[in-house]
Design brief:
The complex is a heterodimer of chains A (337) and B (161). Chain A is an all-alpha fold and 337 residues long. Chain A is built from 14 helices and no strands. Classes of the chains: A mainly alpha (337), B alpha/beta (161). The interface between A and B is medium-sized, with 37 and 28 residues.
């Protein structure tokens, strides 16, 4: 028995480290602790406040640990009218979907959890489309008018955001000439795709904000209209889990933006080859993207649902199609492939 | 407030003391209150989360939902009819839950002692902290919430199940 375990560990050591360690479980949890703390602190400083200070003496770094401890020890209420098991299970499985998508992202050259080649970018987008289904389950099973309206709004928003996002991803695929995330990164050695695909990047950025459901598009959980949207009925540890799902979702989309437009693990370079590649650049770029996201969160007011859907269907989808046409024209006719 | 006036022990109170102390620390740094605003103490209350008094330094975060909140803050006078709604909100909150009463009206009917419609909050639920004043200044309200925080930190509260 023991030998078998030893052999298993020594054979699969790298995979185990990947799954439990760096791009996997521990990294995601540490990232979320950092991201929530960073969001509260950064948003507070932009509002001329201090943010968390006293939890953990230095800069309030234990704030999220305190929140998590409190939520874990709180009573869990399952409403009598709800579909109990679906109500709980849909919330508990929520972080799994974006975490599964993160397994496809290369953090350094040939360093991803799931080493598959080929159609990884369409696969990533396909996995992420499962997320709204869980949200509908959450909203429907709680059997409360706020949760149902919140879930439906989330679906409207996801349809308005996901199609432009796929269109802008098609632009990147055409420019790189590959479906593979790693080959897309390798194709950015000379220049990051934010420059040749700038129109696509604008479309991607706006639909990214719609997908993570933060402030300009926090319509599903608009606090002054729907108490907490589809999360209204969740208490304690289950609520913690839905929050976890939110931030893993943010992490997955931010990593995709980094991979498609900011050169993934490639270091900044002026002439040809980057000096150092590696996961350190992934993390640095990730923090920059998240800072950009939080700055947008604090700067804008919330859109109405009809405004957001109109933005998606009337402006982003035509722009995405235009981007594809321009990409084909420039890449395959002017530059000749 | 459980049925029949009996208070059953919560899960955490059966655990050994050091573990409960860790959870008490977590609870004391993360009080998420909802406010039940019915009167003119509220303009003073709003200051607490602005730049000057900023209670988020101690992790106090105003919440919109009862299901995720820890404390209910009565800001202003409470009439007999509004008390029914307040009790409904209180019953929606998960344990452990705390009640803070702000101002003279809600704590003791204040300037209307012979009113037919005003009620005292303490007649309906167990109050953890009173904040005196008419209306209490933001400093006083912040002090009251921080006093509740100290009370939680020392474990001087009762969790019913």
């Amino acid at each position: 028995m023991l030998e078998w375990i030893n052999e298993f560990i020594s054979r699969n050591l790298v995979t185990l480290i990947k799954i439990l360690g760096f791009p996997g479980l521990i990294f995601i949890l540490v990232f979320i602790i950092f991201a929530v703390w960073y969001q509260r602190k950064y948003l507070a400083r932009l509002m001329l406040r201090m943010g968390p200070v006293h939890a953990g003496k230095v800069l309030g770094w234990l704030q999220l640990i305190a929140d998590a401890l409190k939520l874990l020890a709180k009573e869990i209420i399952v409403p009598r009218e709800s579909m109990g098991k679906i109500f709980l299970l849909s919330a508990i499985t929520l972080p799994v979907v974006p975490a599964a998508a993160i397994a496809l992202i290369p953090f350094a050259k040939n360093y991803m959890i799931l080493s598959v080649k080929g159609f990884t970018l369409p696969l990533f987008l396909a996995i992420m489309t499962l997320y709204p289904i869980l949200i509908v389950l959450m909203g429907w099973s709680a059997n409360n008018k706020f949760t149902i309206i919140g879930a439906f709004r989330s679906i409207y928003l996801d349809i308005a955001g996901e199609i432009p996002m796929i269109l802008s991803a098609i632009g990147v695929m055409l420019w790189a000439g590959s479906y593979d995330l790693q080959e897309i990164i390798e194709a950015q050695k000379s220049i990051w795709f934010i420059v040749p695909q700038f129109l696509g990047f604008i479309v991607f950025l706006i639909s990214y904000l719609a997908m993570i459901e933060k402030v300009p598009f926090d319509i599903p959980e608009a606090e002054s209209e729907l108490v907490f949207g589809y999360k209204t009925e969740y208490t304690g540890a289950v609520f913690l889990d839905t929050m976890l799902g939110d931030y893993v979702n943010l992490l997955a989309w931010a990593l995709l933006m980094n991979t498609l437009y900011f050169g993934g693990y490639l270091g900044p370079s002026i002439t040809g080859d980057p000096i150092i590649d590696g996961s350190i650049w992934t993390l640095v770029k990730l923090i920059i993207i998240i800072t950009l996201t939080f700055t947008i969160i604090i700067s804008y007011a919330r859109l109405r649902i009809d405004q957001a859907v109109r933005l998606g269907w009337n402006y982003l989808i035509p722009l995405g199609v235009l981007n594809i046409v321009l990409t084909v024209f420039i890449k395959y006719i002017l530059l000749g492939g | 407030m459980s049925e029949g006036g009996q208070i059953k022990e919560g899960l955490l109170e059966k655990l050994p003391k050091p573990i409960k102390k860790i959870f008490d620390w977590g609870r004391s740094f993360s009080i998420w209150p909802i406010h039940y605003v019915t009167g003119c103490c509220s303009p003073e209350y709003m200051q607490l989360f602005g730049p000057r008094y900023d209670l988020e330094r101690w992790g106090v975060l105003p919440m919109a939902s009862t299901r995720q909140s820890d404390a209910i803050i009565f800001v202003g006078n409470v009439t007999r009819k509004m008390m029914l709604r307040a009790i409904r909100l209180y019953e929606q909150m998960p344990e452990p839950r705390f009640v803070i009463v702000v101002g003279a009206c809600a704590s003791s009917k204040g300037p209307f002692p012979e009113s037919y419609s005003l009620v005292r909050v303490k007649d309906y639920m167990k109050v953890d902290m009173y904040i005196a004043g008419c209306p209490p200044k933001p400093e006083a309200q912040a002090y009251g919430i921080l006093k509740l925080r100290e009370k939680i930190l020392q474990g001087e509260y009762h969790e019913s199940k």
